[in-house]
Known about the structure:
By secondary structure, this protein is of the alpha/beta class. Helix 3 runs antiparallel to helix 4.
Amino acid sequence: MKEIQIWVDADACPKVIKEILYRVADRVRIVVTFLANRALRVPESDYIKSIQVAQGFDVADNHIVQMLNKGDLVITADIPLAAEVIREGGHALDPRGDFYTEENIQGRLSIRNFMDELRSGGVETGGPSSFKMKDRHRFANQLDQFLTKRASSDLISPNNS
């Protein structure tokens, strides 16, 4: 079974989430690639990479989708990117610890589009709530569960018997 990778939509990813991912990359020996339209400083590691993409709308998102392999995990708060990832056979996890799934992505896209329409009509909708410690813990727990489940399915893969 092909090794999965983690791709991070890093422009808006909270620093505490990046730090969790740095530790996970080395502990689990999984390649984590951070993509942003500005230079990123990441720790020196065989498992941590960064890619600076050109400025522009959805450039990082498009690059992630192009590089994505089936089964890879993408960390993003960008709902349209998460929808693309799911369509391509990947997994998408919000930095607050919520997985986007085939079952919930259409509803989330509808709400996002509705809020965009409200904002473009001049309605102030406010931004997301501040990032809290519980969000950090939820993310770490969801990531750990995902990687544990993935590792155990690799162990029972017919290719490993």
